[in-house]
Here is the input.
Amino acid sequence: MDKQLQFDLSYLQMAGIWAKNSYSKRLQVGALLVKDRMIISDGYNGTPSGFENVCEDENGVTKPYVLHAEANAITKVAKSNNSSEGATLYITASPCMECAKLIIQSGIRRVVYRDAYRLDDGIKLLQRAGITVEQLDSEKIKELEAERQASESK
Here is the structure.
């Protein structure tokens, strides 16, 4: 397995762990923003700072002000001394249209995701903008993990 693929797998798994911080009952999503092999930001879906940590209403519908994981990661890096220009975003679910616009504007050049969102308009917009988009779905991750373990046991 090539080194970049190993990093992609590890960062995507870490995004999956980070997703567990979300208070969402419906779908927990995690994101890591990586530049020069350093994590420069992270995020998970949730309510804005200072709001109650309840993402769904009494009917189980996501509240309209819940932030997506990638939006949280991008706004977090914007408040830091880091720049997302040229970075890679690792995310457990493919981005929606609104988040795709943020990704484009923030200078992120590559997106690696695990699960496909029900709509693919965000992915299509990223591709139209020339951003590299790659999916490592659960089956591919299992294959790569098995390959990595086999090579480590030699």
About this structure: Residues 84 and 106 are 6 Å apart (CA to CA). The mean pLDDT is 93.
